[in-house]
Specification:
Blueprint (H helix, E strand, L loop, with lengths): L8 H9 L10 H9 L46 H14 L2 H9 L9 H21 L8
Amino acid sequence: MLHVPYKGQGPAVLDLTAGEIHLMFSGAGTMMPHIKAGKLRGIAQTTEKRSPLLPDLPAVAEFFPGYSADFWTAVLAPKGTPREIVARLNQEIGDFLGGDMRARLMADGIQPAHTSPDGLARIIEREIATWGKVVKAANIKAGDS
């Protein structure tokens, strides 16, 4: 494959739907409307398991066991933020991601997940370990493009 850098997903999706490029990696939120409209065909999800958002789309791990490259977002606070404030923020975010907001996010192709601050720390540690190996193996340096 040849990597073609784009300035954002919008131009890349336009070129993909126009047939100018053959494939791209992107989050479900960007691609789901095009897949559901029949303009694009999903090949696989990079998550460990199939997503309830696109249950017919296989996970890469079904072909390459252990493979997982999730897109995720986290809310972080400055180091030293009191634990009671972190706990309160975590509770409020968990409440916010439930109910109506959860349904809205899922309709937009985003599968919300909530964890504890310790759970998030474990996710970050796992990601650093996983992608650190990739960076080292590929000899990637800061500023490489």
